[in-house]
């Protein structure tokens, strides 16, 4: 812990290390945590060595297209709940209020969009890799552009997935962050490499159970320690954390409108148009199973994520008037959650271990799914066209790709440790291309007259424009023209509430507080702005929406400049069922409800390449 507070005055760091010595892992906590890792590794060993399944790429990446509905649904939920979500979302509620719940609520309109607009197109076209659709609808260049953005996102995000829980573990044990990151990332690489998609899904089931148990326990115990639900709501309301913002100014950090629209774009992109999730959806036997799985996943996601958001409100109410961040015990909001857990659960044998297992479970599920899909995309899009393909060779290469990316995740932790607000950093980075990716998929499904040239130039236009906007926005941050100061808390009630650890830190802090730079007279804050409107000042939560809008803003007029070839016949199944109905195009004769995805053998024959070539 002392290492994590090195930015603070040395006296505070020393006192912090001394006063929270009792907030440490016990032997039981280490056992609980080790059991979770051992269970994950054991599942990988089982599916890698003892499961009676064929050693084919279809089996490794899609479980033979025979995956059961409930495990896939739980896996989809688990993979969306990364360690970043478990640590940073409560921190966001603690510092900026409960408006972030609107992003979670956006899952409600997202599920029908996936079920009735996007997933049917994948099943009707027998797509096993969502980027195949772009080649069918447009051309190979469009597919390559989008897979490049997928690979870039994975390179940027995978180190974050594992570093955040390592940070939490270090906070409560004092063990070096990078040592933890190395050990746990290695375990994840081990079971993902050995067991393929089956290991990913079934470890997600185990890890999902740990997450659900932990989140519910933290919410119940935190509420109880605060004085009951009414006291939680009273303190949160008094502290301004329950002031919902319905303002339409896009410069406000998060409002109802930015939460719903950006959440809709994000969840549509992450669940329905990202190969790490699509791979699991199309591993189900039929479209009927996929609908059930998505519905279950949506309900489960809402339940656990609303709890996660509310934990931030519980934390604020518990520390209302006695902020451990101001006291110097916690260096930044992203580190507050493990401190809170040890505060309310440290006396319960094994409970801190359960929570840290929860955070790692969330990250392991995200990392394993991403590694598995990443290996598949890299192999089939960039390696297979240049080698003689066999299933054994393909599986060996994909396992090697997973090992290399695991090593990269470990090294990437050294960069992630310098991030200030992790959730803001992730939204900003993914804002560069996520809107363009979602936009081009929707363009293909909704705009029949859009040609391949229009799609490719639309992606480039959106990415370049968003990169320009984000770079200028970061320059505004650096110049102090944008400052997201958090909602106030204080230290005036520490003595009355008998927070001894925090009081000791405050009383021992005899250093003069560091001078903070005065804000310029005109500044954009999280809750308002007195500056003239500038596109560079908009909230980072709008980036994904703006990126998708830019694709359509370019593509619709340009589709009249570069129309599709009149002699080129488009397959109507490439459009969403909603669009086909408007165009009076008849549905396929085969009932989609029972339509399975075709096997890789059939695809290979259609491509003129045998699986045994």
Description:
The chain has 613 residues and is mainly α. It has a domain of 385 residues: Sodium/glucose cotransporter (Up-down Bundle). It is built from 25 helices and two strands. Helix 7 runs antiparallel to helix 14 and helix 9 runs antiparallel to helix 19. The chain starts with 9 loop residues before the first helix and ends in a 7-residue tail after the last helix. The relative contact order is 0.17. This is Sodium-coupled monocarboxylate transporter 2. GO terms for molecular function: symporter activity. Belongs to the sodium:solute symporter (SSF) (TC 2.A.21) family.
TL;DR of this structure?
This protein is an all-alpha fold and 613 residues long.
Number of strands: 2
> In sequence order, what are the helices and strands, one letter per element?
HHHHHHHHHHHHHHHHHHHHHEHEHHH
The major beta sheet can be summarized as:
2 strands, parallel
What is the CATH T-level topology of the domain at 27-47 and 54-417?
Sodium/glucose cotransporter
Reported CATH architecture of the domain at 27-47 and 54-417: Up-down Bundle
Strand order of the largest sheet: 1-2
Shape: globular
- Binned strand content: under 5%
The CATH homologous superfamily of the domain at 27-47 and 54-417: Sodium/glucose cotransporter
CATH top level of the domain at 27-47 and 54-417 is Mainly Alpha
Q: Report Rg.
A: 25 Å
Main location: membrane
Transmembrane segments: 30-49, 70-90, 96-123, 144-163, 175-194, 201-221, 254-273, 294-320, 340-364, 397-416, 422-447, 454-471, 541-562
Family: Belongs to the sodium:solute symporter (SSF) (TC 2.A.21) family.
Keywords: Cell membrane, Ion transport, Membrane, Sodium, Sodium transport, Transmembrane, Transmembrane helix, Transport
């Amino acid at each position: 812990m002392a290492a994590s507070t090195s930015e603070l005055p040395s006296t505070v760091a020393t006192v912090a290390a001394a006063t929270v010595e009792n907030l440490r892992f016990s032997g039981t906590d280490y056992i609980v945590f080790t059991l979770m890792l051992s269970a994950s590794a054991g599942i990988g060993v089982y599916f890698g060595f003892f499961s009676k399944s064929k050693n084919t790429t279809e089996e490794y990446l899609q479980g033979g297209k025979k995956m059961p509905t409930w495990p896939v649904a739980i896996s989809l939920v688990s993979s969306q709940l990364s360690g970043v979500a478990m640590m940073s979302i409560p921190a966001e509620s603690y510092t900026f209020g409960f408006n972030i719940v609107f992003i979670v609520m956006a899952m409600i309109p997202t599920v029908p969009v996936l079920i009735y607009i996007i997933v049917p197109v994948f099943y009707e076209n027998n797509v096993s890799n969502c980027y195949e659709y772009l080649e069918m609808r447009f051309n190979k260049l469009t597919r390559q552009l989008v897979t490049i953005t997928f690979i870039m996102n994975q390179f940027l995000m995978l180190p974050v997935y594992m570093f955040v829980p390592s940070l939490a573990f270090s906070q409560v044990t004092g063990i070096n962050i990078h040592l933890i990151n190395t050990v746990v990332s290695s375990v994840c690489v081990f079971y993902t490499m050995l067991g393929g998609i089956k290991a990913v899904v079934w470890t997600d089931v185990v890890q999902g159970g740990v997450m659900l148990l932990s989140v519910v326990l933290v919410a119940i115990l935190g509420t109880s320690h605060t004085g009951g639900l009414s006291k939680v709501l009273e303190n949160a309301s008094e502290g301004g954390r329950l002031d919902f913002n319905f303002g339409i100014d896009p410069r406000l950090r998060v409002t109802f409108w930015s939460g719903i629209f950006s959440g809709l774009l994000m969840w549509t992109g992450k669940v329905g148009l990202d190969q790490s999730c699509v791979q699991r959806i199309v591993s189900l036997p039929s479209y009927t199973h996929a609908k059930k799985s998505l519905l279950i996943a949506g309900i489960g996601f809402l339940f656990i994520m609303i709890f996660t958001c509310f934990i931030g409100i519980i934390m604020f109410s518990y520390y209302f008037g006695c902020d451990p961040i101001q006291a110097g015990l916690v260096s930044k909001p992203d580190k507050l959650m493990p401190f809170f857990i040890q505060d309310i659960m440290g006396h319960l044998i094994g409970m801190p271990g359960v929570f840290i297992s929860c955070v790692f479970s969330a990250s392991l599920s995200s990392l394993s799914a991403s590694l598995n899909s990443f290996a598949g995309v890299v192999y089939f899009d960039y390696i297979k066209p240049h080698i003689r393909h066999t299933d054994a060779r393909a599986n060996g290469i994909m396992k090697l790709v997973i090992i290399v990316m695991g090593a990269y995740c470990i090294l990437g932790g050294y960069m992630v440790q310098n991030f200030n607000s992790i959730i803001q950093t992730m939204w900003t980075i993914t804002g560069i291309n996520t809107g363009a990716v979602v936009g081009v998929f929707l363009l293909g499904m909704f705009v029949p007259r859009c040609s391949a040239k229009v799609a490719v130039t639309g992606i480039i236009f959106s990415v370049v424009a968003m990169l320009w906007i984000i770079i200028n926005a970061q320059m505004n941050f650096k110049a102090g023209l944008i400052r997201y100061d958090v909602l106030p808390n204080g230290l005036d009630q520490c003595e009355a509430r008998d927070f001894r650890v925090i009081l000791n830190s405050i009383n021992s802090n005899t250093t003069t507080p560091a001078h903070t730079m005065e804000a310029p007279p005109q500044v954009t804050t999280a809750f308002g702005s007195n500056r003239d409107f500038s596109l560079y000042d908009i909230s980072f939560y709008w980036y994904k929406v703006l990126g998708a809008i830019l694709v359509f803003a370019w593509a619709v007029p340009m589709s009249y400049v570069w129309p599709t070839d009149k002699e080129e016949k488009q397959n109507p199944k490439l459009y969403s069922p909603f669009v086909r109905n408007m165009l009076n195009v008849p549905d396929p004769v085969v009932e989609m409800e029972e339509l399975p995805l075709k096997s890789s053998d059939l695809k290979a024959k259609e491509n003129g390449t045998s699986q045994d070539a």
